[in-house]
Amino acid sequence: MTVPRLSQLGIRSVVLFYLTFLLLLPVAMVFYRAFEDGFGVAWDTVTSEQGIHALQLTLTTVAIAVPLNTIFGVLAALVLVRQNFRGKAILNSLIDIPFAISPVVIGLSLVLLYGPRDTAVGQWFFQHGILIIFSTPGIVIACIFVSLPFVVREVVPVLHEIGDEQEQAAKTLGANWWQTFRRVTLPAIRWGVTYGVVISTARVLGEFGAVSVVSGKVIGETETLPLFVRQQFETFNGAGGYASALVLAVLALLTLVLMNLINRRKEN
Amino acid sequence: MGIAVQNVNKTFGDFKALDDVTLDVPDGSLTALLGPSGSGKSTLLRLIAGLEEADSGTVLLNGEDVTHVSVQDRGIGFVFQHYAAFKHMTVRDNIAFGLTIRKTPKDQIRARVKELIRLVQLNGMAHRYPSQLSGGQRQRMALARALAAQPNLLLLDEPFGALDAKVRKELREWLRNLHEEVPVTTIFVTHDQEEAMDVAQQIVVMNQGKIEQVGEPKELYENPKTEFVMGFVGEVNRLGDALIRPHDLDLSLTPIEGGEEANVERVSHLGFEVRVELSLANGDHAWAQVTRKEDEELQLTEGVSVYARPSRARKFQGAEAQGDDGASAEELQVA
Ligand SMILES: Nc1ncnc2c1ncn2[C@@H]1O[C@H](COP(=O)(O)OP(=O)(O)OP(=O)(O)O)[C@@H](O)[C@H]1O
Ligand SMILES: [Mg+2]
Questions:
Q1: Which of A45, A57, A91, B331 is 20 to 30 A away from residue B290, measured at CA?
Q2: pLDDT tens digits for range B264-286
Q3: How open is the CA angle A159-A163-A168, to the nearest 5 degrees?
């Protein structure tokens, strides 16, 4: 790579310019606005009863949706890469559906299926007194839907790259399926899984469209943190909204740092 | 542990990778599967290991039918061409893997790993990762890993295929010594006839999913049953319908009985051996392998006329046409 120095600088400036106006400045503005009138308003909003409830609901959703999608994602990747069967191509494209459909449509589709009116599935839950739509289960399902492909898509290329010789070797040495997976496959795909978990978490934390459709936005009940942020603006509490948005950003960053730490530790 | 493979067939899609293969491997022997690329060597080896399942036929280990026994339960050691080292584990942990899986006590594992590290000459490298080893060292680690749990059967798929010529030679000598020290039944795959001849006690020659011949190295070389085997285990000349090894072609400057007139096209001195390329009166080409001494006596140079006479030749009839035994060979002694 012998790009002349001048053009190197040119490329670098373009990237920096792009990042500055599309990423850094907007985020900096959020910071600035959140604390423009001091920490008081920001703190009060974030720690209000509603704010705390929204935070708890969001964390609950992450705690259910992300582990489920991680397990499913790794299994699906194993099936897609290590097994051959008819209809594999169909399964492969099915997994990408959440990428292709708008979150609002995802929300509506869930309301149709799990709402009490339109389908046998919805009616069954209704008759058994289980509320899905306008309630926490609906929010969790919506988040699972939107974040489903991330782990699969991160793990599939890694599985392709490592090949299956190490797994075969483990089998010849007496390891059963689980031992092979835990001692050989998982350590090899660890970084892929980590990355998948981090972006799934970020997506679930921030999900607005699908959740706003299925939640019914019952304040203090089915309001996740992004919905809460929106509601602050609607009630002209700008500083509070920005502060809550920062909480979301910090949570996402924490996930990233945490997963990195866990992996570093395992490496030693 | 003795192995018996009986009437095994294996297809991939509509490609027949193994075609009614039957083979006996005696207990404690060192056997080579030899054949060209795509002849089904790896498939047969993997089938014996249990990494591949036969469409039909049986595999017996020590007289016990293991056709439907999983790899894990066959008590084998397998060495892959590209090492298949566990990249995230140290040499020590790689070697210990089979023992750890079997929940062997820690102090026993430690002792066994130490013993193996000495056996495969990786002293001082126990804490390295595979990426910090050379190809030859990686393959020795893979061997130690395969041997750790004391398998009844050691299977190696082109173990030295990815290594350079010098390391290959070292390792194959080392494998032969290892087999003397640890006399476990061993089968290794190779497409290098010299490697097979040098290391193995018994060679199985494969071609297009079938076994052509099984025998000791010398037996295969001296009495090949098919034209394919004769061509694969050594060099051959074809004169009419007879096949002659280059060292079985005698040259003379004066006419001899049964000799054919030929013209010397080229003389190459390859150290001890001298290679004389000939063109015969009927247009055929052949080459003779003569010793330096013979060459000095004959003083052969390009363009000289000589008489060439096979001291030993073979004819094969209908490689495919005949029954179960395949081809029949006929030896011709001239002189
Ligand atoms: N998993 C598979 N799927 C489809 N075809 C296969 C598979 N494994 C092997 N084959 C085919 O079966 C034939 C025999 O393969 P095999 O690997 O046994 O050959 P080989 O003698 O080991 O050759 P090489 O010396 O190149 O390793 C080949 O033509 C190969 O393409
Ligand atoms: Mg092979």
A1: B331
A2: 999 998 888 889 999 988 888 88
A3: 115
